[in-house]
Amino acid sequence: MNPSNQAVRVDLQDWQAVCSRHDLVPYSGVVARVGDAQVALFYLPEAAQALYAVDNHDPQSGANVIGRGIIGSLKGQPVVAAPLYKQHFSLLDGRCLEDPQQVVRVWAVRFNGDQVEVAV
Amino acid sequence: MSAQATIEQRERLIIVGNGMVGHHCVEQLIERGALARLDLRVFGEERQRAYDRVHLSEYFSGSDAETLALGDAQLYAEHGVRLHLAEAVVEIDREAGEVVTAQGRYPFDRLILATGSYPFVPPIPGPDGAARLVYRTLDDLDAIRAAAYGAQRGVVIGGGLLGLEAANALKSLGLEAHVVEFAPRLMPVQLDAEGGAALRAQIEALGVGVHLSRATQSIVEGRDFRYRMNFDGEQFLETDLIVFSAGIRPQDSLGRSCGLEIAPRGGVVIDGECRTSDPRIFAIGECASWNGSVFGLVAPGYSMARNLASALSGEPFEAFAGADMSTKLKLLGVDVGSIGDAHAATPGARSYRFIDEAGSAYRRLVIDAEGKRVLGAVLVGDNSYYDTLLQYVQNAIALPADPAGLILPLGSAAPALGADALPDAATICSCHNVSKGAICAAIDGGCSDLAQLKGQTKACTGCGGCAALLKQVFEHELSARGVAVDKSLCEHFAFTRQELYALVRVEGITTFEDLHACHGRGQLGCDVCKPTVGSILASCWNQPIMDAALVPLQDTNDTFMANMQKNGTYSVVPRIPGGEITPDKLIVIGQVAKKYDLYTKITGGQRIDLFGAQLHELPEIWSELIAAGFETGHAYGKSTRTVKSCVGSTWCRYGVQDSVAMALTLEDRYKGLRSPHKLKFAVSGCTRECAEAQSKDIGVIATEKGWNLYVCGNGGMRPRHAELFATDLDDAGLIRTIDRVLMFYIRTADKLQRTSVWREQLEGGLDYLKAVILGDSLGLGAELEAQMQQVVDRYECEWANALKDPEKLKRFRTFVNDHRPDPAIHFVKERGQRRPVGNAELHLIPTTEEVL
User: What Pfam families does this protein's entry cite (chain A) (predicted)?
Assistant: First the structure.
């Protein structure tokens, strides 16, 4: 994906501040409420993309637990393992690696200074 | 119809029916590339796209219509198949070559009937509605659910396979379920008299009423319940709802009204190519009658769909030649299997029978007159015999010298059929008709991973019943080809757990980052290597697991030091060493449970589990428990769990040692020890063994002179008795021996390998283990003891440690930007406590959000 295209696209959206950098847990996840949605925020301080955000809702179990999954990398792509049934979701496109029918929404997310902002 | 005109002259194929068989036919046509020359339309009478009718009862136990749906929702559209749902075909106009629906007429060149069957409802006088429900479609199930509202008791008429499934569905709705069967036994088609009796005993033990040899004469208004069913001879049964499941009839009305040949007992007559009396029209599945028989199982329907799809794609195909009606089921949780000639109808057939009246298990083996082949079998109570017996029947494998061994309880040297004994023609997966030969061909084609094999061959993607056999064949064939099975932990470490343990120990590595930098590859790690390394680091150095560098390594439950349950809430287990607790502490547990409204249950390890806490409540709960003197119970970790004990010589007239004191010593010593898998201990005060120590990883039984030590037992899925390891040890000798056994296990076991499996795979077996531990044959004894002592000395309650550090507590927030709990977590009250609401009950929950 062309990064400049992405920038143009997300700049049209509203950014909502959800927490500060200090609220994040390095190499792990926390959860923020954004309106009625729950967004899992994952922080990889030394990676090229340091921040990822996906839905906290686990389509397989129906519980809001994705933010408590283990972060990893499979075949070069950052993933989170759902904590109840251990299926993996790509943090890039939200697709489940084991079952393409399961998808979690990916949210645009960025640092604005020390603020963490999610595009709504 | 301009869109139609633009379509080139492709053959117009219509499939009437979007059930499991109709859907399978579409999938098979797509897979064979036939859609390039076919313009395919599918009509389904129901609102939902094809779904899994075999597992229909799961609709009441958590599955919704979408999880039961078959295949990808986009599949039809992606391949240009036009799917007309909720559009019933009302007529086939053979003269015009069109099907007629309420919406219009659609021309066809060829037509496939896959209309399935409908439930037979005998003409019994009585009211409609809740007294005349059926069990076939999702809409039927919705009607049953609606009728069950406010009902207490439900009756199923029909004790066959579907009837028992329906009874299970009623039970999952919380009803008192009864089954009424006309025949003198349950499942009369599949089972013989003894099998039926064993099944009845098991089902009655589950609280389901069974009424045999009962013909319902009429249904009238009831006195204590909504309805009364009157049987022969003045007998009756009252109930709030009645589900008819007295058999199915082929849905052949379309074929009938357009003049296709219909079999005397119903069903559109087809030949081996699934062709009806009109050569343009085919019929597959339960609406078709082949050779006078209708096949009421999914596998024969799939096989018709597959053969027909091949024929329509211009590929070579097999003619349908009947089907094996063998079935393996779990009905109401009871295993039932029926293979081949289960009733010994073959002339000269003889039987072996195994009857266990205590456990209500029954097995029958039917062999031919010459005593050479297995003809059939009946299984009730344990289907672990099914796969082997089915292979004997399907592949005409010669009987072993002692045929009775095939149905005798395992452990008495039953001759299990190894993967190498199967011929290439042996069917491994009946759902998708995958033979051993096809699996070997895939392996020869370079397939070296089980998931890939399943994807390529489709084996084990139907009912899943062949999973164990498939794995066995796969591993056997791999090693037969001299393929070294890759033992790498994951893509980040080309080492086994044991090798990583040695690296950590020898190089004194204390963080995942260092280990990954020196010996790993790729980035970041994953959910396999991180918890494994986290466990190794804890076994070696026992640093607090909530330290910042260790947090991201922990498995789900270790991360928050509690056990995640199905709805995302946690359960909390304080340590109760040896199961001994003062009334004051018991009261504190009660007070905490009451304050946080936690569901409370006694565990098998003599502790108390408190369920339903949300993430943000955990620190508050633990600060109250710790203030009362409790410590974490490590119920969440692959670590020491409990030391169970009997009351011992202090109270018991038979006790010869103080088992409680020893249990306290052991639990205090090994608490917090992390290991490849969980560790359970028990101490019994005499040979009566009330603490069940012989089912534990470490079992200690008192003798007149000291302690006998048993090792490597477990309960669970595959129980294993612990083996006697050393006798008459004194206290110090006992602890020294346990230190060595456990540290040797931690050093040499694979990840997530319990002591039982470790011991079984240990080369040299128990004698070798005794030589290493008791004889110190490797000279490791002192080192193992010192390593254990280091872990013991560094013990600290993880919860106490976390509560002291605000930085660590930061993680225990349900939301970082909102103090409220998760609004999606709902509870209902049951037996005086709250429990998570089931998916099936969600409609009962008010949707307004609770604001605290």
Answer: Rieske_2
B526 with A72: Cβ contact below 8 A: yes
Burial of B519 (0-12, 13-18, 19+ CB in 10 A): middle
Task: Say which CATH superfamily domain B419-486 falls into.
Answer: BFD-like [2Fe-2S]-binding domain (1.10.10.1100)
Would you list the domain boundaries of chain B? Answer: 2-118+250-312, 121-246, 325-417, 419-486, 488-541
Burial B331-344 (b: 16+ CB within 10 A, else e): bbebbbbbbbbbbb
**For range B761-776, the mean pLDDT:** 88
Distance CA A37, CA A118 (A): 12
- Cross-chain CB nearest to B816 (options A30, A62, A73): A30
Please, are residues B201 and B213 in contact by the beta-carbon 8 Å criterion? no
Asked whether the beta carbons of residue A38 and residue B822 sit closer than 8 angstroms, the reply is: yes
Nearest to A63 among B551, B566, B818 (CB): B566
What is the total residue count of chain A?
120
Residue of A61, A72, A84 lying closest to B525 (CB–CB): A72
CB B817 to CB A18 under 8 A?
yes
User: Would you say B153 and B240 are in contact if contact means Cβ atoms under 8 Å apart?
Assistant: yes
- Mean of the pLDDT values across residues B462-487? 74
Please write the tens of the pLDDT for every residue from B347-388.
999 999 998 888 888 999 999 988 889 999 999 988 888 888
Chain B residue with Cα closest to A74: B526
Q: Indicate yes or no: CB of A69 within 8 angstroms of CB of B556.
A: yes
Pairwise pLDDT comparison (B328 vs B839), residue with the higher score: B328
pLDDT of residue B462: 64
Residues in A closer than 8 angstroms to B566, CB to CB, are 61, 63, 84
* Averaged pLDDT for residues B704-728: 91
pLDDT of residue B392: 87
Instruction: Please tell me the distance from the alpha carbon of residue B117 to that of residue B276, in angstroms, as a whole number.
Output: 17
Which DSSP string do the residues of B9-70 spell out, in sequence order? S-EEEEEE--SHHHHHHHHHHHHTTGGGTEEEEEE-SSSSPPB-STTGGGGGTT--HHHHB-
pLDDT at A11: 54
What amino acid is encoded at B829 in this protein?
K
Distance CA B485, CA B492 (A): 17
Q: Pick the residue from chain B with its C-alpha nearest to A48.
A: B523
Which residues are within 8 A (CB) of B59 and not within 5 positions of it... i.e. 6 or more apart?
B65, B68, B138, B141, B169, B840
Distance CA A92, CA A103 (A): 11
Q: What is the mean pLDDT of chain B?
A: 89
pLDDT digits (tens, 9 = 90+) for B254-311: 999 999 999 998 999 999 999 999 999 999 999 999 998 898 888 889 999 999 999 9
Domain spanning B2-118+250-312: CATH superfamily? FAD/NAD(P)-binding domain (3.50.50.60)
Mutate to test the interface with A, among B817, B837, B842 (most CBs of A within 10 A): B817
Distance between CA atoms of residues B541 and B508, nearest Å: 9
- ipTM computed for the complex: 0.90
Q: State the pLDDT confidence band at A54, using cuts at 50, 70 and 90.
A: very high
Instruction: Among A32, A72, A73, select the one facing B817 at the smallest CB separation.
Output: A32
Q: Do domains B2-118+250-312 and B121-246 have the same CATH topology?
A: yes
Decide: B500 and B532 in contact? Cβ < 8 Å: yes
Verify whether the Cβ–Cβ distance B810 to A71 is below 8 Å: no
pLDDT of the residue at A117: 94
Beta carbons of B308 and B34 less than 8 angstroms apart: no
Structural domains of chain A in order of their starting residue, each with its CATH number: 3-119 (2.102.10.10)
Asked: is B121-246 a CATH 3.40.50.300 domain? The reply is no
Q: What is the CATH number of domain B325-417?
A: 3.30.390.30
User: Over the stretch A14-43, which tens digit does the pLDDT of each residue have?
Assistant: 899 999 999 999 999 999 999 989 999 999
For residue B228, pLDDT over 80 is answered with: yes
